[in-house]
Amino acid sequence: xxxxxxxxVFTAVFFLICNGIYAQKTITVEDIWKNYKFYHQGIPGxxxxxxxxxxxxxxxxxxxxxxxxxxxxxxxxxxxxxLKAMNSPFLIKDIQDYSFDNSVKKIxxxxxxxxIYRRSSKAFYYVVDLEKKTVAAVADSALGKQSxxxxxxxxxxxxxxxxxxxxxxxxxxxxxxxxxxxxxxxxVINGMADWVYEEELDMSQCFYWSPDGExxxxxxxxxxxxxxxxxxxxxxxxxxxxxxKYPKAGEDNSLVNVLVYNxxxxxxQTLDLGDNTNCYFPRIYWLPNATDLIVVKMNRHQNKLExxxxxxxxxxxxxxxxxxxxxxLDVTHDYYFLNDNKHMIVTSERDGFNHIYYVTLGGSxxxxxxxxxxxxxxxxxxxxxKRIYYLSNESGTLNRDLYTIDFSGQKKKLLTSGDGWNSVxxxxxxxxxxxxxxxxxxxxxxxxxxxxxxxxxVMKGNEDYKALMQEYRFAPKKLFSFTTEEGVTLNxxxxxxxxxxxxxxYPVLMHVYGGPGSQEVxxxxxxxxxxxxxxxxxQKGYIIVCTxxxxxxxxxxEFKKCIYKQMGKYEAIDQIATAxxxxxxxxxxxxxxxxWGWSFGGYLSSLAMFKGEGVFKMAIAVAPVTTWRYYxxxxxxxxxxxxxxxxxxxxxxxxxxxxxxxxxxYLLIHGLxxxxxxxxNSVDLVTALNKADKQYExxxxxxxxxxxxxxxxxxxxxxxxxxxxxxxx
Length: 729
Prior knowledge:
alpha+beta, Rossmann fold, eight-stranded mixed β-sheet
């Protein structure tokens, strides 16, 4: 412990000497949230193309195509002059999303995009034919906006959802075919997810073309039995009430069916997948043969995944793979089905760490990677050369590096530096990839590589942002770790003020998220608005700290899943332990430690404050869950089971239960129309605080959802956060 303290002091003095000669520009909330001075722009409109080793970008005047191998521009696919010549109702600046058919001769354009929930949206879609130089609406705008418009494999048709029904537009005949007719608001949804599937199973579009384009498989959600929640919007003479289906913990879910529609015969069949009253269907995939459909079925406790192969011709089904866990399973997108229709590549935590497996459908399961480290995701599977490209933290739990390995688990190779954080996008042929790299001192840099890892081109350096960091003298961030009194080692990141004096004592602001499987502490700079805000607070004399406690990712099942059936208990203990550790440091003012967080972080900052016995001088909770009884069932039951099965797991670690223990200053903030964490959470916490005769501050944002943004809102919010910290810490 003493060696660690000396390290922090030495580091701080070193940076004080190095940076002392520079004049410091002061960061303001206006710089961050009004002038957007610290907004980092990447590569706008970056897309890989289906026709090979090319990518596209979009600026305000054109969509342009480039070679991966050297970043050479090969074509301007679409520009404003083209659109004007076509009498288009939109220009490039109006395009909010775009995709190509497989030949890259047609572009599907989305305009006037309108968010529905976190991942879903609706828009007016248009097809631009690059050869014929025409633009045409996918559907009559008078009938309303469309969702998830998607080309068929041959580019001759577009499928989409409108009014909870599924449609197909034949681009040759211009005929619109309605596949379903029973779609009805708050009753039946075809082809797109209900609220809870979208939020917790990372799925919004729920229809999929078969590889030959002859069939569409889709999910049908019957929401009739799901209870409704009401959000109230203000601003008119009478407030507007929005009602939607939200299944809380222990409550009924939608009944989900899997259907297949044949485009040629107009035949619709419902697959027989057994009982659907108490389970989930989180993924469906077509096998390359275009007749077999893989349907993934998960039990309500979410600790068993079954992969069923369903033949759409014979209507026969068989179970081809099962994954189980004593506690819970995370549904991912790491399921790759090989062209032989007999094998797949998957990830699983079956040995206690997330690793890659080669599965024979209905047969053997072979582990390809192993060790006390985690595979974060599979980036690409090169079937021609039998190689897998994946991100993992084998080089260190705070890193994320790109590796490759073959189908037999041999010839593993590290393709990145082994020091930092990488995010990778491969070309369709797996010959090239785009990488976004950062480490704890370096902002994002965008580069192109071949599949051996060789650098081909720097697409966008970080010189401008680094100059901004130097201009405003960003204080350096440092990674650290410590061991709690319980013997648990926690990773953290700390920022000391640039004018740090080891003989002085400084207040500390801790920030936390801490949700299951999350990671906030990483070997990455974390540029952007919130990082600039922490730098602003550092300039005002605060030490900024974040630690990842038990329940977070990268250290295996035992570290992550020890929270099972008692979520919040160990997470709060570890944040309190962090504050006690910081209090032991000679340059920390132990009476001035604060904590704040948003969403799960708001829950955890509240719980740690209430249970911390005065270790925190202040806390801020934005959009917090205050009892898991009020949150959705898929997320909550994954970690706690149902309230009926585990009532103490819900109540023992609810901030409402511990409201009477509040010591210090507390600020509670919530959006009134938060569809994710309902305002109800804050209302009932306020009731408990009032009953306990506790003083606190509260602020609520009308007509704002979980993100609390739009117009002047974020600026107003961060002024309020800043003022509260300055006054109370």
